[in-house]
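Appendix B. Extra example for self-study. Work through it before the problem class; the solution is given directly after the inputs so you can check yourself.
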Amino acid sequence: MFKTIVLALDGSEGSKKAIPVAAEIAEKEHARIVIAHVTEYMAAKGGELPHVGEEEIRKEITRQAKELADRGIDTEVELADSVVGGPAHAIVEIADRTRGDLIVSGTRGHSAVAGLMLGSVAQRLLHIAKRPTLTVPS
Amino acid sequence: VAESDGKPVLIAYDGSDHAKEAIRQAGRELHTPREASVVSVYEPLGAIPFWGVPAARVPDEWVTEVRHEAAKTAAEGAELATAAGFEATPAVMEEVRTWQGILTAAKDADAGLIVLGSHGRGSVGSALLGSVATAVAHHAKLPVLICRPANSR
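Solution. Structure tokens for the complete assembly:
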């Protein structure tokens, strides 16, 4: 059984789709949810944030975490920083650290190019994760 | 799984060790009993280039033989899935592109979730994610659970 579900969230509409799926598995399996949120920094530009409103994103994720907790699911938020292009690795690190059994993600986050079916983070995640992964399409 | 809840699971099965492990993992991790369709996708013989001749004509009995082997594989997968706690039925699908066969089978079964191993039979050991799993994750409009070999962590 999945004991720890790592749910990758970035505050985007695409990532939101993964929440009910993760919640349902967590409820059935009595598993805890670790929300993994990675902030991307531009390495070449003196560390600025590529997405405006990281503050808003964190507020949204806090709200989403509270909703899960209100459903009775043991929920925690794990934050990490990464350079652009690196969030998938940071998510896997969080999964390693928290002994995640399953990584749940959407297929498209903030930076996914419209028309692509699988965003770059989701795609890399599938390639580097050494544990079961569940992708939930937008 | 979410809106897919109660809907059957589509399990892609090619007889490989990865596929066997995926069934075992899915049985452990998903809430069972749950209906499952276990599909084995096979390539139409005529579509395989034969000494450079595309779409070679092959004897009917060869075609029957391939279909028969696919059915045997699917039946074996369904047996494993039943042992893992699913209410499983075998299915075969003829399709040039395996990933497309899997998606068609998922549609036919009105599946709410696709389960497959990260690699199938055609995998190169060094690749971290097989081409079929990659393509299914790319094209699926429903959640896809990709299982990993038990000793990969």
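Self-check: Residues 60-83 of chain B form the longest helix (24 residues). If your reasoning did not lead you there, revisit section 3.
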